[in-house]
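Z., the sequence and structure:
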Amino acid sequence: MPGISLSIPSRADAVRWACLAIRGLLQGVTLDDEEKYHVELAVSEAATNSLRHAYNGEPGHEIGLRVSIDREKVVVEIVDTGRSLDPCLLECACLPPETEARQDSGGRGLFLIREVMDEVRVGRVDGRNVLRMTKSHKGLK
């Protein structure tokens, strides 16, 4: 499936660039505004997780965004070369208890991604971590 790729630096302000890119690409897809927001939210959470967890918040690394759109689905991949995500964490992702959520602003990313996307997979391809997120849609405009 053809698509586009872009790379952003591992900086918090650059995550916004990925969100703006996905927002623009979704304009040609038949998703309602809430579904488009969900895809953008998933991209934001996934890129932030790469920054925080794969790269321990260190600048100077690269986070890749690959987007493919066909007549039935949008596929977004977040790619990094940092520390790998344990696939079990994705399968077991749940909302942290309220007491933990108040002490730490993190801990919800994987849960949110799983909730808003139709399919989420994680793996390693050619020495890179790939978080693949899929959202079905009703067609192209």
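The longest strand covers residues 128-136. Strands lie at 3-9, 62-69, 73-80, 119-125, 128-136.

Let me know what you think.
H.
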